[in-house]
Amino acid sequence: MLEIIKNTLTNNEIIGAIVSSVSIIFLGFYLRKKEILNSTASKVLTKVVLTVSLPALAFTSFMKDINGKELKEGLSILIWGFAIYIILIPITKFIYLKAKGDKQDVYRVLTIFGSTTFFGTPIVKAVYGTLGVMYANIFNIAYRVFLYSYAFIKMSGTKMDKENFKKNMKEIFLNPIILATFIGLFIWLFQDMLPQVAMPAKNGTKNVAFLRIDQTVPWLYNPLTYLSALASPLAWISIGATLAEVPFAKAIRQKDAWCYSLIKVMLIPIINIALLVVLNSTGILTISFAAFATTVIMMAAPTATVAAAYAINFDKESVFTSNCSLLSTIVAVAAIPVWIVVLEVVKMIGLFAK
């Protein structure tokens, strides 16, 4: 075990990913504190990440040849995405049994929904590459469905009537990241059935789907790769800048917010790990290490921005929610390196196929 940990801590790629994420988050914090980035610039930066860089990252991650193994993995991740959120709904009810009324609703929604898109995906990209990003975006399909349905109903206290249903469906399917995910997923799944184009290859030519723009229109694909490469650093700078805007003094004195943060960032990933180890070992849901690790990082993400916005907009424990968002982000920044090391230990043990 000690040898495995030693090998992990001396792996330049892993150390590079950890140092890059943490140092750039602190850079964003410094830039905001020094007013090099003002509050307007921070918000604009966040919008650029969410509407341009992350959609580009989502789309480009699907520009690859399809194979049976990855197709099966993708389906398993999609199933697990829906399953874990369904499982967490009653589990969080039990965890926060002592909390009552609005406080319990806020606890549960903030615990179930983490910042998988803005925080989790850039970390996955840094550590597990485009394959991890592809799995992350498939996993996030279920996340979006539950975030704009269950979380909205729970926080607003309203029923999902026809008007709210239409509104939330628009929020789900017109989101730039979801659009990019579905378009990329469609191309990846049906590339063998789409009209083919003969492209130069090492041994002559090969047929590829005309929508595989990474090969058929590389001059159009290249700008997307540049934009996707910006996703991680811009997201990390934005996270750091956001942390710099929130007052620490009051937040760090709120014990229940610290308790929530530890549950969100530590306990929820442990539940995810335990369930997947059992399902994988029994053959009920077999996945590879990359898919497994991706779900763990996503579950270890801090409070989701949309979930926090629901609480604040519907006036449910607004101050508590803000403190939870701040402290869970701090805990997540500290915990992500630990989780990456833990995941590498799991990889070396061989619980999941590589």
Please, could you describe this protein's structure?
The protein has 354 residues and is mostly helical. The protein has helices at residues 2-9, 12-33, 39-60, 68-95, 101-112, 116-156, 162-173, 176-190, 213-216, 218-229, 231-245, 248-251, 255-282, 289-299, 305-313, 318-349; strands at residues 196-201, 204-209. Helix content is 78%, strand content 3%. Strands 1-2 form a two-stranded antiparallel ribbon. The mean pLDDT is 87. It holds the Pfam family Mem_trans. It is found in: Membrane.
List keywords for this structure.
single chain; 354 residues; mainly alpha; two-stranded antiparallel ribbon; 16 helices; 78% helix; 3% strand; globular
Question: Would you kindly provide a brief summary of this structure?
Answer:
This protein is mainly α and 354 residues long. The chain is built from 16 helices and two strands.
**Helix count?**
16
Q: Report the structural category.
A: mainly alpha
Characterize the main sheet: 2 strands, antiparallel
Our measurement of the CA-to-CA distance between the termini, rounded to an integer number of angstroms, reads: 19 Å
Strand content: under 5%
| Tertiary shape | globular
